[in-house]
Queue: 4 jobs
Job 1
Amino acid sequence: MSEAKPVLQLEGIVKTFPGVRALDGVSFDVRPGEVHALMGENGAGKSTLMKVLAGMYRPNEGHVYIEGTPVVMANPIEAKEEGVILIHQELSLAEQMTVAENVFLGELPRSRWGFVDWKVLDNRVGTILKKLNCDFGPRTRVGDLSIAKKQMVEIARALTHHAKVVVFDEPTASLTDAEKVVLFDVINDLKADGVGIVYISHRMEEIFTISDRISVLRDGSYRGTLMTAETDEDEVTQLMIGRSLDYSRSVEHGEIGDVTLEVEGLSCGKLYRDIGFAVKAGEVVGFYGLVGAGRTEIAETLFGLREPSAGTIRLGGKKVTIDSPAEAIENGISLVPESRKEQGLVLGMNCRDNITLPQVGDMTAGPFVSNGAEIAIYDMYRDRLDIKAPSWRSLVGNLSGGNQQKIVIGKWLAMKPRVLIVDEPTRGIDVGSKAEIHNLIRELARSGYAVIVISSEMPEILRVSDRVIAMYQGRIMREFTADEVNEDNLVQAISGIGNGKAA
Amino acid sequence: MSQTPVEQAPMQTANGVKGNFRWLVRHPIWAFVVIVFIFFSLMTDNFFSFGNFENILVQTSTLGLIALGMTIVMINGNIDLSVGAMVALAASLTVDIMGWPIFQSWGNWQLLPAVLAGLGSGVLLGALNGLIVWKTGVDAFIVTLGAMLGVRGLVFVYTGEQSFFAMNFAYADFGASRLLGLPTLAWIFLAFTVVMHVILSRTVHGSNTYAVGDNREAAVNAGIWVGPHMMINFMIVGFFAALAGITLSTQMGASTPNLGRDYELWVITATVLGGTKLTGGAGNIIGTFGGVLAIGILRNGMNLMQVPAFYVLVTLGVILIAVLFLDKQLNRKGEEELRL
């Protein structure tokens, strides 16, 4: 394609950190009015590249050109002035402040003497929010918004400037389907204005919906650019991880046993109402729904973190009340939480200590912690889950996302649970490790655990579950068996337009 | 009409009882101020008089001035423990310098270089605190703890453990002077309270202060110069500590090397009572003003009731914890809250 000259061009960018060559001669370009997807496994250097673009890192070698002229961006403000705007993956918002202040953080409009010009601020932010179909105003406190709406605030920042290049770093991580549509509209508007878009995502289906070209990074180096229209998922995956992936759904069922967990009429205030379902030993039940549908809250209730306002929980036919995580563990319920780094792991501790954390009180030799018993447990789960860590002494914070998740899963398996709840098992994990985690979940079910999987990714739910429960606004809309579920009826059910029975 | 981001003046939300109630939930300390005010008015004869209110204002102005600066530093997510030592340093410097022989012929103008040097010492030390926090990344608690010990030591070295007396009587006269019906020191405190409220709630610097304390990474990402920004705030608190040292020494016409001991604790107590969070990102001057008044009224009232000083400390300790507990209860999310 012989289009206009690129709006953004990177040439031979090298960025080194002590001991690591994070970017090794990366070159690529973005043309005006195109969506250029950037893909790569975690640690491939995408984030570093984006930080170079946003002026947060300075490259050791190489040049950045904007509209053909070489630029040096020393800080985020200069990058913005050059027309490069980065929408961060991790919400970069000040919770106590208003939407308007957050959108214009760092460059609030001033009237004389450094006073904030609230009128101008409100007007400009109001216009942007209207364009984004947001149902909240500029004066709303960000801390009061749901995660998805916070993401929209983050996106609103892209529209404050006359941008030349907008970088979206995993913008859909917590968006609902309806909001995704709005986001894609925004991206298309920007495209039509001739803005160049860099779009980073792990989700193939999105990449193929929205992008024009795809560039792939692996281990800090540039692997090539593909035209989206002329390629397929397999080719992209091969570039990313250097091999093909088996996407087939593992339908092999284990032996389904007795009902392990049974929930009836469970409610918790406004979060969810009248929830009833059962999980048998040896099966995987998937919970699918939009963010805020109440799935995580149900898991937290089962794990004793929330107090239900009504309903009963039965374990193996016996009615139980769970008032704390300690009681949940005693009853054989384990929860692999949504956010691995904040809720699942002590990042500064080593692998062994993380795996034995919940039971270290029982593993004593006299007054001391029994070192041998701890290492034995770690070794056992390292082999069983195929955890790749240099030794049990390695700090968990230094492992890859996939291996971290395995440590969390291993930790809970070591507690010998009957029910294993896994919340967003592959969030932020690259495609290669995703498949591994999926297989692991299937295998766990086969070996007799009752497994509940909560996920916002449809392919994941479809791949691992024996049954799927669709939730919408705190209610169960419909329960599907593996045979009857498909993308269409699932989307209908979680959007509240399901014609199926309300279970 | 401009409103403040985190702070809404009572007049604007006063659409009936509900608005007032919400205002009180955000500033529970003011409910407390009203309660102790009524309590002491009923319990002692001498409390409810204009003269006594003036007393309270002057007595609290020292703490209050520092608390204004502490609020902005704490909203930033930092803390400054060295304010007490800075009080002593600024007071000693000011009182000493005005007696230097070179300024002998200056008449009352000899106060000028002395006061400037005093204020300058606070600003400079604040800048140094801020610079170390910025450049080394060491926690402000540790940096200013070091400054607190070091500066206090310097004061003893400088003064040779001696108290200084102000040679120019105009200095002490100023401390006792009145302006438009109120003590001058009370005016200084009130004026700076207004100035700091405006800075914090209306200016870009104020907004950035909240942003840095609330989510430092977001502030960096947004291109706020976090380091210099924090340094400015340390300079502000240093300025107020020095100013407090000067006003305190005008009241006595003298300075002692032990001046301002434990002030950091009182100031932090007042600021936290006023709703500023130690973790940063939340707080405001209206609350801090309430916290300062609460401490002032309690000390004054219990003194008038002839409660021994040590019981005053016990009471304040209990009240500090009680007010924060109340604050937490009022701002709970109810039964749906996560149990942790």
Note: The longest helix of chain A spans residues 177-192.
Job 2
Amino acid sequence: MATPQTLYEKIWAAHVVERRDDGTCLIYIDRHLVHEVTSPQAFEGLRVAGRKVRRPDLTLAVPDHNLPTTARKDAAGRVLPIADPESAQQLDALRRNTSEFGIDYIDAMAIEQGIVHVVGPEQGFTLPGTTLVCGDSHTSAHGALGALAFGIGTSEVEHVLATQTLLLSQAKTMEVRVDGELGFGVSPKDVILAIIGKIGAAGGTGHVIEFTGSVIRNMSIEGRLTIANMSIEAGARAGLIAPDDTTFAYLKGRPMAPTGKNWDKAVTWWRSLGTDPGARYDKSVTLDAADIAPGLTWGTSPEDVVPITGFVPEPSSFADPAKQAAAQKSLDYMGLTAGTAMRDVPIQHVFIGSCTNSRIEDLRAAAAIADGRHVATGVRALVVPGSGLVKRQAEAEGLDRIFITAGFEWREPGCSMCLAMNPDKVPAGERCASTSNRNFVGRQGPGARTHLVSPAMAAAAAVTGKLSDVRELMGERA
Amino acid sequence: MTPVTTVSGRAYPWGAKNIDTDVIIPAHWLKTITRTGLGRGAFETVRAQPGNIFDDSRYAGSPILIAGDNFGCGSSREHAAWALADMGITAVIAPSFSDIFSGNAFKNGIVPVVLPQEAIDRLLEVAQDQIVTVDLETMTVTTPFQDRFTFELDAFRRQCLMEGLDEVGLTLARDTQISKFEEAVASNRPWTTVESGYASIGVEGSRRT
């Protein structure tokens, strides 16, 4: 009998073009997503060397990082110019490069435009058992559908454009199992924050994580995307979830997904990809769903996680002296005092969006809290849908009206305040409850203070003006 | 790419942990469409603080940076490697690196040297006033005090660094193998072909509220 294999090992084996003597492999790349920030130098490299794109048909480009999320057309329907000349130049470069090299390009004005990691699954471009790359670390998100998906640098973008391959060493495997039933008010974001809090920001380095267990099995694709998206925040370049009926139901009929006989053949193969009984992971970690509460970050690393009922930790409570120093620096930057209850911390900004939490289910969860309430005085709250299609769906359900009536700003799709490349920034010294993925120093703008939370927790913070336990607001409705 | 065999000189004795790529180069510097000139934005938030290590005249122009665990975590931006290269840094020594940053460093002639924390602690001390040498021939980091720490590098990456090889050119030479693989996939996994383009579609999600 063949040696039992993990999901990762099966996908890896199916993509080896060539194995070198030193063990590194030339790996075939089935899908390549391109955005405006990490691609201009790659296209320039091709141009200088006189090289072409090997498989433009396996490549899809969409702008997201730089696009302003304010109205893109005026009242008369005329396209508004982009104020920042550097952003405009980068967006223009993507349009020109994709046209020159024959790559499918979703224009900023198209309803299908959105954050690259929202668009890929939405269009069925992302498929189980494929290798998928993008010049963006949150490419790990696509692992939610069982694709081996990871972020690459610009030199690798150029390598994939020219050769449709990457030279890689096989990663180690790590299982993160979450069993049990999630408690009241606990969302997929809380699950991934709890995981990162447990294994640390470097806990998955050198590994590909496979998320398993009943909690993951029972989760929708939207929820799984949130989980896999933040694998990179635990140091794992890729996160995987075995494809199952939930995955197939999600993908069937999507514009770029296979059809007819090809679909049937695909499903048969996809079903065979799950980790075999008896296969071994290099590392295994288990979490009990019952231990997971709505959570958030207090510091400047995604591993700085506490439950909302918790307190700002004492730096001296950490065993590692380097972590003690880092914690003190984090507290100074965050303007927090050890021992403060997280629920007593006021905020000035709320950001609901990003490739982590901008899908329709995220917006519904936030709207359910916002409905009938109002954004607190002195708080600015942004809702940025992940794509034009998500925005349209939300508007069809009236979510935009709920948000606008409650005092939230309803924006156009893009990366927005997650990384402060476009005009959406948090001013220095001000505090933001954010559904994004990184609470790094300066991430949401120079001097900005970020607390990572779920969409419902972000909405709760918006209406109360402070970090809040969403369960108390949900309780009022129960 | 310029070949690298040894990197020798002063080193920034920093030692900070979890240095993410937003710290190495903040996002507003990412709007460039070239690879050069990013040294100006390198460590911008760190340099905004008085007395920071990067503006300390003792270490000005150092080719080596000594850092803590998980260096280069976060975003995949190769701008981080370009910014370091533009500052003149050609080796970073740390207990661990993020996988993506490490790959980006290699492709830009920057050696990511992994050494245990004890070695880092010793180097942080020595680098206060002495030079540090990273040698790819002997795979060692040495100091004028006879310290000698050996490190490991992936053989292929080491060769690329030492010979300044163009990886895209090397892979293009495997065209026959890649074409053979593509033919096999076309018959075994025909669904990986993209049949049609993107289009408008409903995105109802799985749970209606």
Note: The mean pLDDT of chain A is 97.
Job 3
Amino acid sequence: MIGFLASLAVGPVLIPPLEIVATAVGSGDLPTRIIVTEIRLPRAILALLIGGSLALAGAALQGLLRNPLAAPSLFGAPAAAAFGAVSVISLGLAGALSIYLPAAAIVASFASVALLLLVAGPRASLLVLILAGLAISSLAGAGTALALNLAPNPFAALEIAFWLLGSLEDRSFRHVVIAVPFIVVGAALLMWDRSAFKALTLGEEAAATLGFDLSRIRLRVVLGVAMTVGAGVAVAGSIGFIGLVAPHIVRPFVRYDPSRLLVPATLAGAALLLFADVGVRLMPTQSQIKVGVVTALIGAPFFIALIMRRRHELSGADRG
Amino acid sequence: MGPIVADAVRLEAITCRIGGTTILTDVSLSLAAGEFVALVGPNGAGKTTLLRCAAGLAGYGGDVVIGGSRLSDLTLGERAKTIGYLPQGHVFHWPMAVWDIVALGRLPQARGADLSAADRDAVRQAMAEAGVTKLADRPVTTLSGGERARVALARVLATKAPVLLADEPTSSLDPRYQLAVGDLLKRQARAGGTVLAVLHDLGLAARFADRIAVLHDGRLTALGPPREVLTPDTLRSAFGVEAEIIEVRGVPVAVPVAASRPDLVESNRQTDAAN
């Protein structure tokens, strides 16, 4: 709530909270109203939605893989979405804020799932899925590099590079409308299997004998991640590490139960991205730092610390 | 427990191939309700695979019939309520509390929803039977190997499934808990359950199981009451050891004394023939 208000208040023009309330009830002067409702409100809503969906996707994947180091980028959907968006810019079909761009990103995200299932097969094991996801990520990354390479002019290249950094700047309600349906359906898919994530703490065979159909669960999670994360990338570019960090922060509070983790992780992710996005507006830099850069700057050291803490366990034990 | 049915579990001519290798050939084995059968055999004989087939985890030729229904006709949910399966190794990926782990055994009944009073009773009872009540709040990853084994067993007991398939439930347990678990499996059977457990300890198998099934090279080579199965000949052909059978309190105990040498086995046969 505080974060949300702050997100509405903070920017080049600082708007006191009282005026935001005034705007909310329909009074207040026109410029303020426009800044709050047209510029900052969609930005705040997107921060909540994308932060939340990234964290939900991370928590669900970590549950499926029984590994706290799993990130939403694992199956290649975010990289594919980025490639879809970038190729639209590169082909000169759209500017970074055009509506075609998120559409292309979401299409690419779905294409990556289709390709993943084609490569790995319908009843693939987890390891094969991960390898196939890695291959698709690499392919999409190469495609993105090619698009950058072939950019028609330096401005397009700069536009692509900035877009890839991940930002919530200058997004409108149109972006919210594009992202919401995919995020809602994707989130529902990820929530669907929450008790399976709990059972998976016993390993795949024991979970199967508790009545869970693991190949269907894998399919739902892959699709859910592609939809939530794909939609997020589509409107905001690549914002990393929220999906890794948010579940980790709240995990001790739910006694490490992977099913009870999903909702708190979602809330934590929403709050994290919202605050990060307020943070970039408060930083006294010449050009505004992209929020994706901030989450990566904070998230990557966190990831390193996590690996070092679990180093022994990861190298020693067989976690198959 | 479910209704008592003769031949609660019937494995009919089970054949299993994994990656082009034949693991099981034509294994037939019937267990009555109320019966505890110990599955023994050398490493790589196919014991775990047979258990996995019976639980529906591995593809097989032949038929698995549980309580009169073919396993392939049961839904995953029905299987989960009928068969409690304890895999080898006792893996726990998250440091969840012991209570929460044992409560996973109620998932077939209480899918996703909160535990009912009956569910909680089942969890409490299973924890008491496996001797892990005191560990309820401990993160499972901080427990010793033996404690983990008992938590895993409690999780399976909490399902209250009439059929219990346990893969080496007593490995990593000290003698006291080996006895306790053997006794527990026997009591499960006496209460109307059907128990098929892979055991490596032949003494434990002889002491608690009603019958012992010997698996060797994917085939069932001996099946019967412990006294009939635990003979020097069976042990020589299945395990490749020379063993003496002694009796302790009426229970046959096999004491391996030497690894069999093929020539030795051969000369024994000749001596037998000469006699």
Note: Chain A touches chain B through 24 residues (CB under 8 Å).
Job 4
Amino acid sequence: MESLVPLVSSHSPVYGLLIFALALTLSSIKPEYKALVFISSLAIIVNIYSLNLEKIFIERTEIIKIVSAVFGLEVLSALLSKGRFYELISHRILGRARSPNRIFIMMNLLTALLSAILSNVLVLLYMVLVAVKLAECIPEFDPRDLVTSLIISSNLGSMATFMGDISNIIVGVNGDISFLDFLSVAAPISMASTLLSLSVLFILLRRGGRFHCEVAERSEIRGENPYLIFGLTSLILMLTLIPFSRRLGIDDSLAIGITAVFLLFLGGDEISKVFTEVDWPSLIYLGALLLTTESINLIGGFKILFEEMSLFRNQLNVYFVSIGLSMLIDDAEAVAILSPVLRSLNAGRDLWWAAIVGSSIGSALTPWGSIANIIALRKLRESYRGISILRFLKISILANLPTIILAYVMLNWVSE
Amino acid sequence: MKRHYAVPVILLLLTLIYFPLRDYGVLEPKQLQTILVFIALFFMLAMEYRHRTVVSLTSLLILWFLGIMKGEDMIHYLDLDVLGLLFGMMVIVEALREAGFLSILAGALTSLGFRKIYHLTIALSLFTFITSALLDNATVMLIIIPMTLSICETLNLGRATVPVLIALSISSNLGGLLTPIGDPPNIMAYSHLQISFIGFILNIGPPTLLIYVISLAVIMTLFRREMTFEIGNKNDKEKPKIEKNSFLIISILVLTLVLLLFLLQDITGISPSASALYGATLLMIIGGRRMAPILREVNWDLLIFLGSILIFSGSLEKVGILYLLAQIISKSTHGNPYILTTLIAWLSSLVSALVDNIPYAAVMIPVIDELVSLTGYYELWWVFLISVGLGGIATPIASVPSLLTYSALRDKFEFKFLDFMKIGLIVWIILTLSLNLYYLLL
């Protein structure tokens, strides 16, 4: 490990930790600057401690695998977004809206399901728009509680698959957990947690009455471009091929990125141009974040932060630390911090599962627990009215407390 | 529509000829596979079959599947220095554009009162040639291209902008040849030769200047219709409006600091990429909210494309194709200076037209050294360095200035890869011929 720090720096790791803490705070307050913040913090840390980035890249191949997987998901999201997939879904929901309770359950379940396979940010953004559209349709309808419940469902639903969330990919790659492992362990926990929290939310937020929303013709949205069909085919192809990637000797995360490149190539000239629509700053942010956490780990920063490293040999501790961190910062950032620590302890699968489940639940607990939460709430504020932090916390804590217990019981059961 | 049929047919043919060629046994299977994938890549880029970055990434994946390049090889050949320098300078230039600096500069140049396009072309080309001799070519082009586009927009030049930008790309490639610090192959040869800074310029300067003049003449001839357009009347209407703001001052200060760091590289020991990244980071910290959209404006696609081309060039080095070329040269010329000059001039410029010139220079420098010590023909160094630089003119992927120019032309005027190549190849042939004749007559 020392070989990665060519010039043994006389600087204390505390400076690195302070810069990192500042970057985390800034990125939580202003998520739109996250790429900028982490590139800057990485540049400063690398400079202060004379780190060799190329060596970190070569020795930590996990970073490339993670970025490759997220790139694949970004391509998929860009294809579906360009194919107006989310608009089509929104249109369908609005067209079928008859009662507040029915729409509440339908939207929450759909959000959880879509978040398990697609980008949470896009799913939540479109769901917020549907909620606001409902409010426009029915003046007495207040979409704020619905959006809160959607955020919770999205975070819990995203726990289910390897590609459900960036935090899953980070843990999956670092803990060598495959796509199929996710389906057998995380998916049941995710489904049970989503259903439990949804039941609590339903009891808390249910409403009576009936309504009808006028929607545009479906043909206006559908059928004018090839992106939708190609995007959906790509999604199905990815979900079918990735479980077999390990048999071909290719890592799941690399398989997602590779499939995306080949799909763009095979899709034709127009489809290949979707490449330019990928959210590159988000990928750069992720790369910079992972490189920063690896750098902090190399200079011994996390050893100072978690003085009692043995603390992390216990599943319950990892679970609660993961929940706690994800409540405070973005869940991807939380697991990016935990991963080097768990890796250095040669953590078993049970601890990695605790990190995944904890981060998903933690991110559902606060308005700033995930970037998707922040963006969705901002969209709500811009298009309707904002929700107070207290109101969000009241709903999320009540809905998630039973989930925390249930998920831990299931984790224990799975571990045994 | 033709390309949709032509490309799959060519790809199929390339796959089919692999087997007889492999059995023929001249090249090793991995060398043969790399060359065929390279031909396929080049063909697809030329035909604009798919988005260029998707094509280059797919080709890299094929090399990976064939076991030619491993993950660590790719990182090794990625050349983070080149990419870091480009990224840093892209951020700084975007900030300058956002702050209005480039418009001010363009306005100031416009007000100089150019009457014909060739006046403007010569002025900008000379500026590019000189600055490229002192600074990194990528840096110069990143500043010059948006500035030129801004000038041409102000003057309503439309498609007449094309020859201006092409002239600048050629000038940047040639300007880099003029000094030991102008181009990476020059730096490599300079450190190898142990010659004085002035001595290097005195040797390489005269042929470079001559070739530069010829290149301008060729461009003027090729675009003689556009070059005679009158632009004088429009100048007077556009007076540069200078709106001072703190962001503008900060951006200019950062650029000055970075350029200073470039020039003081020998003293500070800070590499150009680190200097550019420090500058970009400083701007990001100070620039605040104005920097977030700028980061989105960075040409990420171009960075990834360049990265993949660098890796691809590395693969040719890794499988030993460049080494094989060097071997062929030394064996086939039998030390004859005339044949050596001709072969080195054409072969080096041809190879540099197809691959990145850094790995080629790295492989060839020991070979040239050997050939010079065998023949005593010291001029071979200059033939080699100039021809490597000339190769950068021929194709859009041959050098960073050409790639940046092609990207700008493509985005602005839907300029095709083949359009660029047609002009590039004509200029390249004439200039290489001039170089060859110069040293033969000498």
Note: The first helix of chain A runs from residue 13 to 29.
